[in-house]
Amino acid sequence: MRYSVGFPTGMEGLIYPIPFAETNDLLKIAQTAEKHGFDSLWGNDHMTTQDYVREEFPVPPRFWEVLTTSAWLAGQTTKLRFGTGLLVLPMRRDIVVTAKQIATLDQLSGGRVEIGIGVGAYREEFEAVQPNVKAHRGDMVEEGIQALRKLFTERSSSFDGKYYQFKNVEFAPKPKQARLPLLIGGNNINAIRRAALHGDGWIPAGFHTDKIAEGVKQMHEIATVNGRDAKSLQVAPQFICHVGKDHEKAIARFRQSQMHTHLVSLSKSTLKEQGSLTHEDINLIGAPDAILAKIAKAKAAGATHLLGILFAANDVPELLDQMQIFAETVVPHIK
Fold first, then answer.
1. Non-local CB neighbours of 82 within 8 Å, separated by 6+ positions
2. How far apart are CA 224 and CA 214, in angstroms?
3. Tens-digit pLDDT profile for the chain (335 aa)?
4. d(C-alpha 6, C-alpha 238), whole Å
5. Among 9, 75, 105, 176, which has the minimal tally of Cβ within 10 Å of its Cβ?
6. Of 4, 18, 82, nearest to 314 (Cα)?
7. Which residues does 7 contact at the CB level (< 8 Å), separation at least 6?
8. Closest alpha carbon to 215 in 228, 200, 229, 201
């Protein structure tokens, strides 16, 4: 099973305090991930500050653009892969430029790129960045995935969708990878369907393992009916993690984190399907034995990659410490 780190490109004010990571800290996190054998870094994608963050903090967060940041870090690492968790296509209206950035990054990194794609957790952010666009963001994502595939695979391609259009675009260079992985994020049936029809895998976030198993079953059924190899699809859930020797102390520390505050903010949107389950019930929080038990259940549910693990920490030293503890106490038992 692969395991990777959630990278703080757009996380200040959300899951981490403001300020959190300076540029030298971003490099330190990447180098630490490579040192401890993590598969990849998965940065998220934000363009402007959410309303509740503006109310909580007196200064704005620094949202580092995820593709540019990944390119900079790829030049200073050798094995570490880079992913987007998630690239919010509705905020990126020029799909040809987006495709060009992704393909260039894959070439310059030596084929170390994977792209997670999603709708975005905050519609208010989309409306701020695209105030004159009246759109169904899910439909935009579906069109965008298809447009990216055409650009990545056809020498000259055209696309005439409701939201994205281009004509006779000769696109080169292509990504270095013969098939650059495009994974689809989201917890509802529409995201599962997009993954089954158009993606290389599914990224659920904050989902209990029972729900992951249900989603995997649905994805495989849809893929099979539509002539795709269901077993080739990745299942890459994203979990929160805080690991400690003492189980109860680890939970208490998690509840003191900005991460916990952020999860509460998502309880009526992205995480509304959690129901009565607590964040501690779902995520990798506690002593190593408890975390390993949850990982075993995730694997049994079909998980192939613990994607972009979001370590709960209130500063970079604590984040680096959590990465090391996870690598030393958990990883040896899941390899």
1. 40, 41, 42, 43, 70, 73, 74, 105, 109, 112, 113, 114
2. 16
3. 999 999 999 999 999 999 999 999 999 999 999 999 999 999 999 999 999 899 999 999 999 999 999 999 999 999 999 999 999 999 999 999 999 999 999 999 999 999 999 999 899 999 999 999 999 999 999 999 999 999 999 999 999 999 999 999 999 999 999 999 999 999 999 999 999 999 999 999 989 999 999 999 999 999 999 999 999 999 999 999 999 999 999 999 999 999 988 787 776 666 666 666 788 999 999 999 999 999 999 999 999 999 999 999 999 999 999 999 999 999 999 86
4. 9
5. 75
6. 18
7. 26, 29, 30, 41, 42, 43, 44, 69, 308
8. 201
Q: Read off the tokens for 319.
A: 């984040």
Tokens of 26: 């971003």
- Return left, alpha or beta for 267; rule: phi > 0 is left, psi -120 to 50 is alpha, else beta: alpha
Give, to the nearest 10 degrees, the angle between helix 137-153 and helix 95-108. Answer: 50
Pick the CATH number of 2-333 from 3.60.110.10, 3.40.50.1000, 3.20.20.30, 3.30.1330.10: 3.20.20.30
Structure tokens at 53: 């963050």
Report the alpha-carbon distance of residue 290 to residue 152 in Å, rounded. 42
